[in-house]
Amino acid sequence: MNQSTAVVAVRNVTKRFPGVVANADVSLDFNPGEVHVLLGENGAGKSTLIGMLAGMQQPDEGEILIGGQAVKIASPRHSLELGIGTVFQHVLLVPSLTVIENLMLGGSWWQRLARGAALKRFRELSGLLGVEIDPDAQVGRLSLGEQQQVEIMRALWRGEKVLILDEPTSMLTPQGVRDLGAVMKRLRDKGVALILITHKLVEAYAFGDRISVLRLGRVVGEIAPDRLKAMTEKQVTDTVIQMMFGTVEAHARDAEILTGRGRAAHRDRAVDRSGAARLQVRDVGTEAERGACPLRSVSFDLWPGEVLGIAGVDGNGQKHLAEVLAGQRHASGGKIEIGGIDVTADGVPERRKHGVRYVTDERLGEGTVGAFSVATNLVLKEIGVAPFWKRGISDWNLIHDHARTQIKRNDIRTPSEKIPVGRLSGGNIQKVLLARELNAEASVAVFNKPTYGLDLQNTRLAHDRILASAESGMAIVVISTDLDELLELSDRIAVMYQGHLAGIVENGPDVERKVGMLMTGAQKDAA
Amino acid sequence: MSAEVETLPGPLPGGDRLKEIGAAAARVLIPVLLALIMGGIILLILGKDPLAYYGYVAKRGLLTWGGLQETFTRMAPLLLIASGLIVAFRAGIWNLGGDGQFLLGAVITSAVAPLLVGSLPDLIVLPFCMLLSIATGALWSVVPAILKARYGINEIITSMMMSFLGTSFANVLIKLFFWDPATTVPQTRTLPVDDRLPRLFGSTVHAGVLIALAVIILVHLMMTRTAFGLKLQVVGANPAAAVHAGLNVAWLTVATFAISAGLIGLAGSVEILGVFGTVRADWNPAYGLLVVPLVFLARFNGYGTIGFVFFFSALMIGGDSAARRVGVPQHFVLVLVALLLIFLAVVEYLDHLRRKKVR
Amino acid sequence: MEGLLTQPFLTALLFGAVTAGVPLLLAGLGEQISEKAGVLNIGIEGMMLFGAYTGFVAAFYTGSFTLGFLAGGVGGAVVASIVMLLCIRFGLNQIVIGIAVTIGFEGLTALLHYFQFSRTYPRLDAAPVIALPGLSQIPVLGPGLFSHNAVVYLAVILVGVFTWMFRSTYVGLNLESAGNKPAALDAAGVSVIKTRALAVLSTGFLAGLGGAYMANVGAGLFVPMMTGGAGFIGIVLAMLARGKPLWVLLGAALFGASLSMTTALQVAGVNVPTDVVQMLPFAMVMLVLVIFARHSVLPPALGLPYVRGDRG
């Protein structure tokens, strides 16, 4: 590592949280004019590392060097003053303020709002990034891609030395990803040190000049720029997998998920569409609350054993689709039939009786009650129903017995069924949800982002459960923003765009291009 | 501190049962002790002897037969209000409009009971009046309930507004409709002492205390052992999860408000049928907010609440006498309650920090 | 009845409306700052009451109304600092602490008053009045609206100042962000905790000032529990005003008018129980809430403590 060129470097940094070591003895250099990719799965310690660079956390051991000097980054403000700008995974803009107001945020209270100077800087950065945004537009009304551009501007606002991007492509369309790539190149050529955090190998190869691989809090390997340039994508893939798992073969499935290249093997079943469809959706629409995207006349059929993937950029009505299918949102028009029975007017309990199941993406937000026990959460959707309740009286013994069985059967890692579910890890909470939803009576299952935030092992488990359910004859809808995941699981892929089903395409060769076009709003004829 | 309480039967795993009980006792006793000490310091600053004050309060509220009877009697309305609050708080609903619901319940009972006792047997009149007061309290909660259920309007504000409205409306009712023509001061007709709730075992304690005890135990069992109670708790702990699980949140919200306000209305009724027999204009014991800390202190547990209500009743009865004898106004009890609430929150916060560290 | 439309009656009505409305205006403006920053300040009633007490005591012993008002504001801010420490710094439940603060200072002020004055209620002299040149000469309106204590004009000026502050200063941006997306403010390098702390202290000062005005100008004396729910009305005003100070002013004026009506009708000898009139403002709020229910929007982060690293 060349000491003299690095603008920012971390040296032997260790950060512990109760029960885990998030970063262990990490040393990295970040050079100007270079895109440095930090690659690793969820929980590898990437977020903790940038949290320390952004001043949100302090390292327990080791130091951070800025221009060769050891610096204690005490706060987000300090980090910004040092010229380190961070774009976090979740949008950190105030939706009710305008673009320029958001960018001005952070001035000292005794100063007057320096709108003129701010606009000047805004135009400067617009030029640098090559983007055009109305500075007086309310941020809540911008597209997610535009919001991200505003975030990049804010990160660069007080100096364009270092820019950290945390999983920046997760909410973008393929076009948005290309635009982002262009922005990164421009910035790199201007001498900015870019740090790109991702769990996708494809992105690392496409955008990175240097790749560092993290696993379980440690740096397990690095590919320097000269070497990276000389390698093919296949070679990079093999090298990274070697770094992460020791061998290329041992963790074939993990590697597949990491590279998004594993689907072909699993989708060789043909769906029998000669019989009656299990789920029929006709012209279903919903009403939107402020700022949400409603459904507009969505129609599709789904046969037993079939997996329909729903692709699209977040916020195009996917959530409403899931909720209207589950029965927890009222359809303002249209018709939903299950096995030929009209269930449009039914709520969640009635739909459950028809075998409808919904695994939500908000596992703690709505899927479970964090403060309640695992046992209670396992019967959350059957409160008052026999055999756990008789005449409205709870049979706690039976509920706990049931929980113990489920815990064993689904390998839910918890000390006891009485532990509040909120104390479990994300993967185990997902297991609780899967155990609750996927029982023998299930016939139609909706999965919303089933692997969001899970590590490789739990991602693999969830994928296996979904495929096994399809195998057993369930009709399945999988909503995801991760196209690779849909390619692996789906028989057909539909794209949601602004509340419409922009088109449905068979999973197969060339499907990525078709889906990509549909995601940007190109019309149905694209497919 | 939040409404996230789920009571499961049986011991918690991963630890010594005794240890758990000890920790729970500490969580409760430490705030009480701190509040008493802090209150004592305030008394010292004001030039009063805290030991003399507390000693007198204990003697008058607990250690004399007369005082103890008064303490038990005072428990009746407090327990019923506490039951109402437990239902609401466990369902995550801040019904802070207790005073209005209590007074209207009291006024309706005091208006109706004296008219009926002549023509109907007490065994019919008294329960009828209680039901009427329950309905009145529930009715008074309908607007905040619907505003909360349909539009998500903060029920703290609306229930308080309805409470102010209710206290004034109670006076209007007395002055315009139920004024006893035989009195010069505006008040309702008086229910004859013989027709009131029967006294227990030759004491001055009336049967309303038993009703209140039964109600709070039933409420506790309802919340912990029935589907309805669990549904309410789900709504309280995570409304989004309630929607997700297909619960009718709007209906449950209205039901919660109705039960809560109804029980508080019943408290007003029982206080009239058991103790006063009449309501005078401008009478307002303002129990509504005072019971809130007790319910919190017991972590919404019905049995625990009984203990705290007893403690607090003794404090009130003793404090009333101390106002005359020791020269410390009964307002001091308000200060104690506030200190209790603050220390409770702080202790729970520290406990939370400690647990986080252990994990 | 014919006495209702006489000049003195109307003047008294207007004058009373202003006197009753100003504490509500100050409380409402104060609560608005807290709510904007994402803090539901239920303890404002306690802040007003303590402000009323400290304001009165200071004015009583020094004879200076200016010092009285200042002491009232400081008193309110002292109470607010409890909320600041427990709710903003420690993240404790804002509703529980709010209730505690209100109950506690109801009790404490009554207690202090008792030990200070026993059961007597000494009065202050009439508060100094500034008659606005020209305007105060207008019949009825002049003496009704334009001959008041300086605090009244200050409160009205604050409406303009706050409107400007919310829209075109960093303070405004920071407050808005703290209530709408605290994590964004944090990422921009501004402390959410400090922003909210400042907001709560300002609320306390304004509420205390309102309480002091109530005691020193409105009543001329201190009586335990004298605020009688004014703080809660302030909360409602702030809720309905949706971040617009001018709407707080309008709401306070309406409330002030109906409170003033209570006294005015009594003076005029109209035979309606005062309770009926006392119900008016509350009934009006409920009515407004029922009618405009869909439109009262609160900041998404209201009432939630900010913990760095939590999403939102």
Automatic annotation (TrEMBL), chain A:
GO molecular function per UniProt: ATP binding
Sorted UniProt keywords: ATP-binding, Nucleotide-binding
Alphabetical list of CDD domains matching this protein: ABC_Carb_Monos_I (cd03216), ABC_Carb_Monos_II (cd03215)
One Pfam family linked to the record: ABC_tran
SUPFAM superfamilies: P-loop containing nucleoside triphosphate hydrolases (SSF52540)
Domain ABC transporter stretches: 8-241, 279-523
Domain of life: Bacteria
PANTHER family per UniProt: CARBOHYDRATE TRANSPORT ATP-BINDING PROTEIN MG119-RELATED, GUANOSINE IMPORT ATP-BINDING PROTEIN NUPO
Protein name per UniProt: ABC transporter ATP-binding protein
TrEMBL record, chain B:
Key word Iron present: no
Membrane topology: Multi-pass membrane protein
Main localization of the protein described in the UniProt heading: membrane
Subcellular compartments: Cell membrane
Entry's transmembrane regions: 24-46, 75-93, 100-117, 123-147, 159-179, 199-222, 257-279, 286-312, 332-350
Record keywords, A-Z: Cell membrane, Membrane, Transmembrane, Transmembrane helix
Top-level lineage group: Bacteria
Protein name in UniProt: ABC transporter permease
Protein's organism: Dongia sedimenti
From TrEMBL, chain C:
Signal peptide annotation: none
Main location: membrane
Protein name: ABC transporter permease
Transmembrane segments: 6-27, 39-61, 67-88, 95-115, 145-166, 197-215, 221-240, 247-270
Record CDD domains: TM_PBP1_transp_TpRbsC_like (cd06580)
Classification via Pfam families: BPD_transp_2
Domain of life: Bacteria
Topology in membrane: Multi-pass membrane protein
Compartment(s): Cell membrane
Protein keywords: Cell membrane, Membrane, Transmembrane, Transmembrane helix
